[in-house]
Amino acid sequence: MRVKRSLLILVILALVGVFALSACSAPATPTQEPPPPQEEKPTPPPAEEAMQGEKELEIFSWWTAGGEADGLNAMFEIFKKKYPDVEIVNATVAGGAGSNAKAVLATRMQSGNPPDSFQVHAGHELIDTWVVADKMEPVTDIFKENGWLDVFPKDLIDIISYEGEIWTVPVNIHRSNVLWYNKDIFEKNGLEPPKNLDEFFTVADALKAAGVTPLALGDNGVWADNHLFESILLGVMGPEKYKGLWTGETDWKGPEVKQALEIFAKMMDYVNEDHSALSWDQAAQMVIDGDAAMNIMGDWVAGYYTSLDLEPGKDYGWTPSPGTDGVFLMLSDSFGLPKGAPHPVNARRWLEVCGSKEGQDAFNPLKGSIPARTDGDRELYNSYLQAAMDAFASNPIVPSFTHGAAASEGWVTGISDAMSLFVADLNVDEAQNNLYQACVNAGVCSE
Amino acid sequence: MSQARKERWIAFLTLLPSIILLAIFVYGFIGWTLRVSLSAWDGITPDYTWVGLTNFNHLFTKAGGVSAVRFRIDLWNTLFFTIFFLLGCVMVGLILAILLDQKIRGEGVFRTIYLFPMALSFVVTGVVWQWIFAPGTPSRPRGINALLGLFGLEQLQWRWYTSTESIGPFHVALIPVIIAAAWQMTGYTMAMYLAGLRGIPEELREAARVDGASESYIYRRIILPMLRPITLSALIVLGHISLKIFDLIYTMTGKGPGFVTDVPGIFMFETTFQGNHYAQGAAISIIMLVMVAAVVIPYLVSSLRGEVER
User: Fold this and answer.
1) CATH says B75-309 is which class?
2) pLDDT grade, residue A52 (50/70/90)?
3) Pairwise CA distance, residues B93 & B23, whole Å
4) How confident is chain B (310 residues) per 10-residue block, as mean pLDDT?
5) How many beta carbons lie within 10 A of that of residue A109, not counting itself?
6) Which residues on chain B are in Cβ contact (under 8 Å) with A103?
7) Testing the interface with A: which of B16, B44, B165, B301 to mutate, by most A Cβ within 10 A?
8) Nearest residue on chain B to A16, judged by CA atoms?
9) Is domain A176-330+403-441 classified as CATH 3.40.190.10?
10) CA gap A337, A92 in Å, rounded
């Protein structure tokens, strides 16, 4: 009897809690929404007075280890030299190419507790997630004041712009469309690295006949499939049509996408059987160990090889992925300025360090990437990175979708799901339809 | 009378803080998740527009496209994972407990060894078993395949969790995951059964033996029936772990090619925190909650009723 009554009380209390919470959660939105307009105006004018007051700067990133963390610290050192009174709070969240960090960041931003500046992939990951939600301040004035519009490539400025404003300061550039190869294997078999997709299969057949796994793939977590697919898409349709995929101008149901899927399916005959058990670095390692001849992956592979004391051009070779020579498929880490940042003045100072030649040349040699500016000091970079700098300065630049530059996070998740099914059953028609649906769900393609 | 009433009030007041915390942080948030799952919240900005069951619809009908395909696979995976995980834990746990109950020497050592995996986090287990079951290639086997090759058992080598084969709706890639999970939790069922076996009075066995019952007859007719309540509570505890499993699979295999090792927990995490589809993610959570509730609530009701009767 007694048990029953206390159970009843508990249930009632629980229900009261539910209603109390859903009651306060609903109006919570309106109360959260209005502040931005109020905050928008006050921030710029009192900047001068705030200068003395701000003693802190909180930087949020997922750079917790290795060259990335060293690079971040190098930028912190530059900031500290300029502003010795400011204490830097290094808020990092480890793991998973930022997926854990993004979850933490979302919670902080939604509860109105943004950091002063946070790391985000430049392009649509920033724009569709944060700018559209009205959570960011534009940084166009920082670009103008520092004359950055002349030193950052125009294609890059386009990628980080939305509705006429620039929203973020890119600190580095990675190239996505690179084919890494084992020089010894190619020499021994008298082969040249493939320049286009037809040559790729000729070379792959020859390698297979010689008993070598032609292509190393490490797609544990599926994103490496997206990565390979974007290189194929670019190789099949070229930069203009590839860009059109992300604006709705190129048809996802068209023959080029179909051809790209067919090529992807065909490539699966040439990859290591255990690809879904490996990560990208294990696949890159296969090329070095001679277990596979080639690997298509972003140029963080060069950073990985450098950490193994391997020399570009001597211990390994590289070339743009088949059919993409003369195009730079890029992704970029950048820092933005959230609305309601507790220390906006310091945040702006931080962004100035991020975009400066000094900051970028301190960060990038350690991280193993190239500066987002075209005037970096070449002496600081190895021969692979120098070649990438040349390509970045002269080639047309197109955004990577796998790494957040070309498409919203929701869209990329949709593509990932489609690719996850495709890599298992290699059904081209079904995959093409799923990719088209992902585009429709993202609101870019119309039904 | 008044003394009894006073006591009841004191009891209530003592419980009040935890009741309030539970009400807010458990039931309140369940209610809020339910509300979000019925909303149009897509993207970072909350949007509480009422859309009814649209999000659930996307998980179960063709309208959801790949999401519906994925979710159907997830439910099958959860079902098979749960069945085999529970079977494995209960059977191996019971056998280990019976063996340990034979008054062998060094029982304490064995007990500790079997219990030890439970002290690890699923994340650690996941990473380690990912290495163990990484298949390598036929010419260059790794992990367990390399071990099998060492013993000349090449015919037992297969692709483990990278396999995309399936028997009906059962993906064989789940087998290594089930082994890893069962390895971790078997010690728990063993400990429960061992306690249960120790709780059965020796007189009962003696009496049966005097009546001429064989050892196997004693186990079948006396010991196992007396262990039934323990089996039930072990199934409930393990069942709710397996229905919402996330960390082990996320670190060990992820969703896998063709979602061969995907479960609702991973789908929920990716949908909500990578795709920013908050309402859709909330809908998945609610279904997970319903699945777990379907297991736990009958158990709670029956055990509460038992208490009242007592």
Assistant:
1) mainly alpha
2) low
3) 36
4) 85 94 95 96 91 95 91 96 96 94 88 92 94 89 91 89 92 96 95 94 91 90 92 93 94 93 96 92 96 90 78
5) 23
6) 273
7) B44
8) B23
9) yes
10) 17
